[in-house]
Structure formats: C-alpha cells, structure tokens
Design a protein that fits this description.
154 residues, alpha+beta, 9 strands
Length: 154
C-alpha cells in the first residue's frame, strides 16, 4: 500500500478551487452541461494528481462509475471515527443516518468514491469523504479523520 494522502488533498483543493472560482460563476451550476464538464475536469485532476504518479492513470477512465483503488485510513492516533451510513431510497435519494462510532480498523476496507459537500451546487468545501463499505453501503466521514492509500499494481 502507498500513502496518497497529500496527493488526494491536492486533488480536493484543485477540484474545489475550479468549482468555486470558475464553474459556480458560469451561469447555472445545476445545468447538465456544467455538471458534465465538472465531472470530466475532476476525472482528469484525479488522473494527473493522484493516479498517474502511482502508475494507475488508466483506472480514472471509469471514475464515479467504478470505485477507484483508493482506500481510507483513519488518522494516526484515533481508535474510532464518526461515520454516517446512507441508503438509497426508491427515488434514488440518499438517506443519511446520524453519525455512529466505527472502529478505525473497519475504515481500512472503505473504498473512496468522492469528496462530498452537502450543497454541491453552491460554494463547496468538500469536507466529507463519501466511501463504499465492503458490504456495499455508502458511508460519509469527515475528511479531517481520513488519510488515503492505494494498492499499487506490480
């Protein structure tokens, strides 16, 4: 496993900056065209800043459709972290539960999906990490509790 925390935080800041500085002011941030453009920009940023340095640029092609090989790791010194679990309702909305305490060892198996903000169409901080648990559930964890690792192919 290789620690890619610094690279992920650079990616987060780059994506946040592009959205807040350029796309949010581009007219209608909720338009499908702006959303599609941002998804493409995010994919290329994660490819260049995180995956290319570890020799895995090709896995960015399916970004947002297939979980990336990026796992979460709880910050050093923690024994547990607050996690909100989510489930998708019949209308495809995610219902988030109240935070509960999860042992740090469980977080090791969570797969990164994206940095998350409660209002993705306004000014974003992306202070949460959305992840998928081994049993397929969605999880939200405050980014301040997370580091990131990637299993490098040999």
């Amino acid at each position: 496993m290789e620690d890619v925390t610094e690279e992920m935080l650079r990616f987060k800041e780059a994506a946040r900056h592009v959205w807040n500085t350029y796309l949010l002011e581009a007219g209608s941030p909720m338009s499908p065209e702006i959303q599609d453009s941002f998804e493409k920009i995010e994919r290329e940023l994660i490819r260049a800043l995180v995956l290319l340095p570890v020799g895995m640029a090709d896995v960015a092609d399916d970004y947002r459709r297939v979980p990336l090989p990026i796992n979460l790791l709880a910050k050093s010194g923690l024994t547990d972290v607050p996690v909100q679990f989510g489930s998708v309702d019949p209308n495809r909305n995610i219902q988030w539960e109240l935070p509960c305490s999860v042992p740090c060892t469980d977080i090791l198996q969570y797969r990164y999906i994206e940095f998350f903000d409660w209002n993705p169409y306004g000014h974003v901080d992306l202070s949460y990490v959305k992840a998928r648990t081994p049993d397929g559930r969605l999880a939200l964890i405050e980014q301040k509790y997370c580091d990131f690792t990637v299993v490098v192919r040999s």
